[in-house]
Amino acid sequence: MNRRRLLGGLAAAAALLLASLAHAEAPTPEQLVQKMDEVMTFKTRVTDATLNVTRDGKTDTKTLRIWNRGWDDSYSEFLSPARDKGVKYLKLEKNLYMFLPSTEKVVKISGHLLRQSVMDSDFSYEDMLEQRALLQDYDAKLLGEDKVDGKPCWIVDLTAKNPGQTYARRKMWIAQDTYIPVKAERYAQSGLLLKTLTMSDVTDVGGRKFPLRMVMQDAARKGSQSEFKMANMQFDLALPDDTFSRRRLMKGD
Amino acid sequence: MLLRYAWRNISRHPTRSALTTFAVIVSVAMLLVGHAMIEGLRAHVVSEFAKQTGDVRLRHPDYEKESRFDPLEYNIDAFGALHDRLMGVSGVRQVLGRIQFRVMVQYTDESTIVPESAGIPEDKLTDEQIFGRKVVEFAPAIGFEPAPEREVSRLQDRIVDGRYFSDDAENEVILGSDLARRLGIKSGVDVQIVSYRKGVSDIGAQVVGVVDYGNRFANRLAHLPLKTSAKLLEMPDEVTDVLVLGPGLDAAGALKKRLVDSGHVSTLEVKAWSEIGMARLVSTIFSVVLTILLFFIVAVAGVNLLNTMMMTVLERQKEIGVLLALGMKRLSVVKVFVLEALAFGVVGCIAGAAIGSAVARYLHENGIKLGEGTTRKMFVPVSDTVHAIPTVTGLFFAVGVGLAVAFLGALGPAIRASRVHPIEAMRNK
């Protein structure tokens, strides 16, 4: 009888322990988003990229080189095709500048222009200006679990704290093994799906897992999708001080 | 005899008769001038509208439903070949290609730039000190061929600063006066024209002229030569609108039929100017305005005449009683009053027509300034100076309405007067 009680007590204790361990493994939505931000953030990054914009079955390909300092600052230069060669973008925190080689003038992308597409792609300038620290602007809620391409993910729902955000709501599928947001849906205040972004081709780059392929679909552009593929990616290089310089952009270097 | 009697009555109260005649004169003159002004305004708006559409306009069949977004993907390609084919259609005088699109116009004031040689670190400098002071305006734009459009759009007549495009113009721009004012620039200044179609592309252009349409919407336009627009938008030999000009606006329907029958425009939307939404709206607006004007003038003249005739009848009750007692027929009493009224009507109409025609003629030659606020908010670029167009129809219309009002205004009181019993009428004090 005593042995039976002892065994029963042990079983109950084991069940409690397992339950508490399982509870400890399920992170809060805030923790998930924070972890995702850590995975996707870097000190510096230099990469070559190809932007394939497919619309009505026709694909336009553009190549570019990008320098990043964290998520705040970036400098990108289009290398091809000929019509876009020499176009450069400089992003300094929330400011975005564009150098146009034909007139050798700089245009500050602001106001009405922010909603326009970048190089006729499904990405908008507002998308370019996105800050990674999502928790500052959104309240997170864990919706459950799902699988994307056979891989288990957490689904996190983000609702904008203030009405001024580009997207009122976001739904993200965060991979449970890598914390990479493999899929993200962006919604308007009305609940209308505006854009869908998927990230794939997760590769080991300098000891860290990073997605090399992003595909954006703007629901307003029927039959359109933009694929952004990165290659020759390098992290945490020491970049010259003037890499993210307005004067450098002005000179078109 | 009745006529003589009627005339005697008129001459018995010269002031009252003069006032009644004056009311008819004013009414007929107002009607004539009002008709001529509305005709002038209608013709002006229609001709301005036709400058946007030609006699017949061709577009891609899907352009219209997306027109709010300037859908450049719904364009007409191989315009050069289409132009040559259409010029072979009977009655076609001119074929013009245009591109309607949207641009960002940027002016850079480089005087604010601090040179690198000044040695000031970049983080101490503002954007203005590095890139120059930028003034940016988003605007609707139109690309057209400067030489053939010279006599069609008559843009050169509205230039208030600078000049019209040179014939082989390239990288020149003419700005609407509101757009130029917002940018804070005049002719001779270089600007950057940026298109955000297919990403961002730009050209540098010199502002050669500033144009004032007297209309808020049109004054926000940027005008570019067609080949500059085509280069900016990467639309070689493509246009959004083809304007076909023929014998005249009245023959647009027949011209449209010939174009359709030619088989050259089978894949396009073909519309005569009068079938285009705005033209129908303009026509309806003018019909409503003309009806309202007519109603007010008729009401004023009619009430005036009615009042006078009522007074006449009431004052002459005793006299009517005597006439009826002496055996005058009731119909004759009606005739006397109607003749009196028609006398006012005829004299008033002749004088009113003469005065109205003279005023309308003057307004035809010199025009009338309606004030900027009147036309500035219209969707069609309409000048605020409108020239009246006096017509024979307008003359007959005004005289006809004058006589009808005089007749009808007198009929009621006259019938009433004829129905009074002679004894009752003679008792009346």
Tell me about this structure.
- Chain A is built from five helices and 13 strands.
- Chain A has 253 residues and is α+β, with helices and mostly antiparallel strands.
- A 13-stranded antiparallel sheet of chain A has the order 6-5-4-3-2-1-13-12-11-10-9-8-7.
- In chain A, a hairpin with a 2-residue loop joins strand 11 (193-205) and strand 12 (208-218).
- The longest helix of chain A has 24 residues, at 2-25.
- Residues 16-24 of chain A have low confidence and may be disordered.
- Chain B has two domains: 2-48 and 281-427, no CATH class; 56-245, no CATH class.
- Helices cover 52% and strands 17% of the residues of chain B.
- In chain B, the strands form two sheets. Chain B has a six-stranded mixed β-barrel, surrounded by four helices. A two-stranded antiparallel ribbon of chain B has the order 11-12.
- The model of chain B has no long low-confidence stretch (mean pLDDT 86).
- Chains A and B meet through strand 5, strand 6 and helix 5 of A and strand 2, helix 4, strand 3 and strand 7 of B.
